[in-house]
Amino acid sequence: MVENNYFVKSFEESSLVIQLVWICIIVLVFSIIFIIIYLKYLRSLLRKNDLLKIKIEKEYEASVINYLYAGNEAEEISAEQQAIIDELKSNISETFKRDILISTLLKLSYEISGEMAESIHKLYIKTGLIDYSLSKLRNKKWNIIANGIRELTLFHVKEVQDQVKIHINHPKTEVRSAMQLYLVNLFHFEGLAFLNDITTPISEWDQIQLLEVLQLHKNQKVADIKSWLKSTNESVVLFALKLAKIYNQYGVKDELMALLNHKNIKIRVDVIPLLSHLSIIEAKIILKNNFKELSLEEQIAFFEMMENVYEKTDKPFIMEHILNPNFEIKFFALKILKNLNIDEFNCFKDLTSEPEFVRIVKYIESN
């Protein structure tokens, strides 16, 4: 007691600064104690939730497996299956349990195929989970909308495409990406019809994803891409160019030639190797005649094209550029000259002692 009085008296006689320091120390100590207790509580709660989740997952997994094997040919839904549906329905009002059921259904659908996988997709609808996914599409939060679209994609729900397409020009890239993948996963080339209406950009990553999905489905009828090559949305045009290359769309020759005059330089540059890939020789003549008006990127792309489509009559044009200031153009010009006429190449290889020119010549000679 005497010691306590001593500390109190010392505290009262201390300067204001020291008193504030002591108060801060006491508050800090109590805060640390509170945080430690709270963290232990959270850890305990998380462990408890994890155990509960594992328990519920096992129960749901057993119920779904029983559902799959409880069917019979006489009825679309047997009495036993209906009982399981009713039991699952009674649990999905809780978000925690609903999310576990969805993840369980998805896990099982990945492990099986054929009619059983189709049965799981039907169970998703019969239990009313689809209604919760559709309600997410009306949510104000973009991440919830995207999750709802992904769920509808994973469970192959085709009947709601109009509700999904509402988000075609959503301000968030993630929502647009989910919408695009929904359409292409479920409707393949027909799903690309959204390209007619989209006004927002399609990112390079989204384009790659869409192409990967399309290539999973063989023997599909390729969509008519002519209107997309004329789109005012430049990302749609760039995506259409990729489609034209992968699926060898020679029938869009006129539309591709028109893109040589597009206002977007990337589109002009990208269309040149595509014209070469499709062996559209008319493009070479146009580009060669307008070479001086082309940007440097277009000139380089044209010389890459020339490597595949050169003719003997192109030799004077090639000779004009063996000393071009651009390294790549100079390289392609010398390489083409060697292929056209090795003797003339040997005559001109000592044209200058400029180090870059000499390095190019030595490389071409050894390859």
3D structure, described in words:
With 367 residues, this protein is mostly helical. Among the domains are: 52-127; 310-367, no CATH class. It has 20 helices and no strands. Helix 9 runs parallel beside helix 10. The longest helix has 54 residues, at 16-69. The mean pLDDT is 88.
Largest sheet: none
CA-based gyration radius: 34 Å
Q: What is the end-to-end distance?
A: 96 Å
Tell me roughly what share of residues is in helical segments.
Answer: 55-70%
Q: DSSP helix count?
A: 20
The stretches of 5 or more residues where confidence is low (pLDDT under 50) are none
Question: Which structural class fits the helix and strand makeup?
Answer: mainly alpha
Strand content: under 5%
Provide mean pLDDT, rounded.
Answer: 88
Order of helices and strands: HHHHHHHHHHHHHHHHHHHH
Shape estimate: flat
Task: Give me the count of strands.
Answer: 0
Key traits:
367 residues; mainly alpha; 69% helix; 0% strand
Task: Summarize the model shown.
Helices cover 69% and strands 0% of the residues. It is an all-alpha fold and 367 residues long.
Secondary-structure map:
Blueprint: H1 2-13, H2 16-69, H3 79-89, H4 95-111, H5 115-126, H6 129-136, H7 142-154, H8 161-165, H9 173-187, H10 204-216, H11 226-229, H12 234-246, H13 253-258, H14 265-277, H15 282-289, H16 296-309, H17 315-319, H18 327-340, H19 342-348, H20 355-365
Helix pairs in contact: 2-3, 2-4, 4-5, 6-7, 7-9, 9-10, 12-14, 14-16, 16-18, 18-19, 18-20
